[in-house]
Amino acid sequence: MKTALVTGAARGIGLATADALQKAGLRVLRLDVEGKRPGEISYDLTDLAGIPKLIDSLGEIHVLVNNAGVQNAVPIDKYTEEQRKRILRVNLEAPVELIRAVSKQMIARREGRIVNLASIAAWQPHPDLWYGITKAGVVSMTKSFASYLGRHGIQVNAVAPGPVDTELLQRVDPARREGLLKLVYSGRVGRPEEIAAAIVWLVTASPPLVNGSILDINDGTYPRA
Q: I need a surface site. Which of 38, 203, 211, 222 has the fewest CB within 10 A?
């Protein structure tokens, strides 16, 4: 049985993904900063130095889903230094360190699949400047790792959701949420399980040629003239 590590697995897209992967027959390691439920792994991803030891303690990992993320939803002139450091650590630096640590065993097996959570924020202006910056960084590092690891039989891809019914969306300014809903083709926000279904496909069924790809799951949420 293959093992998947899902970060930020206590709620939202992470929880839906962990549940979907388990239903697909994988053993799932659920990591979250809170780690309150039985079987969850409690870990604060701002502790970058501890990530290699964490991965070594978990045994074989065949699938990594870098889902954990934060959004401060404050204007740039209100950002504190601590908020800036934390969002960079959790959204961008921690996924890089997790891939660096996990890929060592994947290279040895010449097999592995990694999915990162980007966002439509990577492609367009975003009121939370640093959130958009981190998600654009996720797109770049996904392509860079795919280029580096592809020769070792490892696929590295990302999904870039539009508005999804999660706690992060509830923190967005109501006017912005209303504007997004005017753009989406279906007239509704996405559901976490819809994003999870795409992630399950990427880690269980996508062909090897799907590598370094950013799968847009935004229901048309692009600015239109």
A: 38
* Beta-carbon contacts of residue 49 (< 8 Å; ≥ 6 apart): none
Residues 6+ apart with CB under 8 A from 142: 116, 118, 156, 157, 158, 212, 214
The CATH number for 148's domain is 3.40.50.720
Q: In what order do the strands lie in the sheet with 112-117?
A: 41-42, 27-32, 3-7, 63-66, 112-117, 154-161, 214-217
CB atoms within 10 A of CB 206: 18
Is 131 noted as a catalytic residue in this protein? yes
The kind and range of the H/E element at 63 are strand 63-66
pLDDT tens, 143-187?
999 999 999 999 999 999 988 887 766 666 676 667 677 778 888
pTM: 0.93
Instruction: Indicate if the pLDDT at residue 219 is higher than 90.
Output: no
Catalytic residue among 43, 79, 131, 185: 131
